[in-house]
Each structure stands twice: as C-alpha cells, then as structure tokens.
Amino acid sequence: MPIEPYRRLFALPGVRPLVVVTLLARTPIAAGPMVLNLHVLQDLGQSYTWAAVVSVAVTIGLAVGSPLLGRMVDSVGLRPVILMTTVVEGVFWFASPWLGLTGLLATAVFGGLFALPVHSISRQAMAALVPEAQRRTAFSLDSMVVEAAFMVGPALGVVVVTGLSGQVAMIGVGSCIVLAGIGLYLLNPATRSSTSEVATGPRPPRSSWLTTRMLAVLAASAGAVLVLSGSDLAIVGVLREAGQLPWTSAVIPIWCLASLIGGFVYGAMRRSYPSLVLMGLLGLCTIPVAFADQWWLLGLMLIPAGLLCAPTIAATSEEVSRLTPESVRGEALGLHGSALTAGSALGAPLAGLAIDLAGPPWGFVAVGGAGLLSAIVAWTLFRASANRAAAKAETAS
After folding, report:
1. Residue 13, Ramachandran bin (φ over 0: left; ψ between -120 and 50: alpha; else beta)
2. 200: which residues sit within 8 A by CB, 6+ positions away?
C-alpha cells in the first residue's frame, strides 16, 4: 500500500507535533469513562445503573458543550478555551474521588460541559494546516489516532483501577489531561489557514451552512458511532453467552486493528467517498456478525465492519470541514462532536434492549440495521432537498 500520501502529509509544517500532542491528549480522555465507571462500581460500591447515570450526565455535558466551545474558539481564539477547560477538567478529576455519588452526579454534567475539546481542536487544526486535496489523508490519520488512543487508554485505566484504586486512576487521568492542556496551549495550533481571508463582519448565519446536506453528514456521524458503541456491548453479550468472555481482550483488538488498516488504506486512496454510503456499508456489514457464536468467528466476522470504522469517521470530518466557512468551523466541528457523542450514547441502550428482548446476536442486528436505515433515510432527505433546490433554481431562471 503506497505511503506517499502520508509522507507528504507529515512534511507539512505543524502536522507532526499536532499528531503527537493530540495522541497523548486523547489517551487519558479515552480512559476517563472507563475509570469513572469502575470508580462508581468498585470504590463507591454502587450498581451498574448508577454508573450508567453518571456516564449519561457526562455525555449530556459533552453534547451541549462541544458546539459552544467550538463557537468560543471561533470568536475568542484557541488559548482562552484551552486554559478554561484545562482548569475545569483538572478541578473535576482531582475533586471527584472524594465527592461521593451525590457530589459526582452534581458535577458530572460540568465535567462534560467543559471537557478539553481535543477531538474538535485536532480536526479544526488539521483543516487549517492541510490543503483540501490532502484532507482525506489528514482526517484518516486523525481517525487512526483516535482508534489508537481508545485501544490504549481504557486498558491502562483498568490496569490502574484494578492494581491500585479508582481514586488513583482518576487523579492520574486528571493529571494527564492537565498536562495535555498545557501541551496544547504551548503548541497553540492554527485553527485557520495562513491564506484565510475571514470576513471582519458578522458571522455567517447558521442557515447558510447548517443545510440539509450538513445535517445528513451529522446523521452519518451519529449513526456510525451508534453502530460502534452498540457493537461493543453486543461483543460482550455474545462472548458472555458462549462462556468465552475472557476472549474479549482478543476480539476487540482484532476489530480495532481492522479499523486502523481501513483508515490507513482510505487515507492513501485517490478519491473520497460519501459518508452516508460508508455508514450504510458499515451498518450492512455489522448485521451478519450476529451469526458468530465463537470468539474466533466473531473476530473474523467483525473485520469487514472494522475496515469501515475509521474511514466513515474520517469522511464525516472531511465533509464538515468542506461544507463550512473557516469563521464558523469550530462551531461546526463542535456539532460534529455532539453528533458523535449522541451516537455513542444511543448505541449501547439500543443494543442492550435488543439483547434483553431477543438475545446477544440481535444486538448486532439492531445497531447494524439502525445504521443502515438512518443512512437510507438521510440520503433520501438529502436528495429530496437537492431536487427541490434544483427545481426552485430552474423556476427562478
């Protein structure tokens, strides 16, 4: 597979340090939810339900805060946002081990609301540093970095919680996030290209860029992560029913490795593909995984879907950056982050409901079918809107 596109990408000024800093920053962020859940279960002695409630509170904060922080980046610049979120994140993680369940529930929304927006900062900086012709490669690399962080972060979190305690792990997560914020503050990556000519007048109204096409891309973003987060739970369910739960540590890395390979290949390709098409294929390839009843077969059948994971997320990032003016790109990528968060929040409950009603294999059918259906609906609405616009333009002429 040719690596020349990646060589050209890394030759661009600012790309290498951005990738290194965001990888280091994303790893503790990826560990955070797992550490928080284990702290509630192990240190506080609470139920899975309460752990889920805390996670939902953080998720709500993330979904609301992401576009607001992105808008702040657009209006006041990157460093004030990094400084504010780093301080709040540090306070949240350092205080949380001693708050108890009530205090944790009271502060969890704020922990999500003011979370260090590494993902949107990384994508906005990539769009600023990289010419449009190379953005598919750039966003594919960014998706691979996310995949690597989620392969390493949660595993490290589990090791610290089980080997020491949830309190130590939470302080460790907070310390690493503060260091990540300091690193991002010092790096201060560009959020607008050097050739940008941003108007000094009022911001473009949302109606000018939050179009039906953009909504379709956001739907693809949410749908893709819905499939992924639901598949996580379905994997556990299938292996638990088969009495092979320890093999989760082999199956999930196979799935993640396939995603890394898919992202690498997609970034080296000569053309981009519509995110709705990729998301539909992701959902379609997930449904047959329901037929796997052994860990090795499950790992094999997850490979086709895994190959589409990183490319789908990369395609949505590329399209969001292309469809929005630079002056509002922070807010747009914040909405993209909210869509990813929403998909993540919906996937596990949908899979869990299907598992409870019909058995673990149906978790794959439910989330795969939901992804495929949402791709079809979003594509239909987008085409209908495009046809109406074309008819209106023809009538006007």
Report:
1. beta
2. none
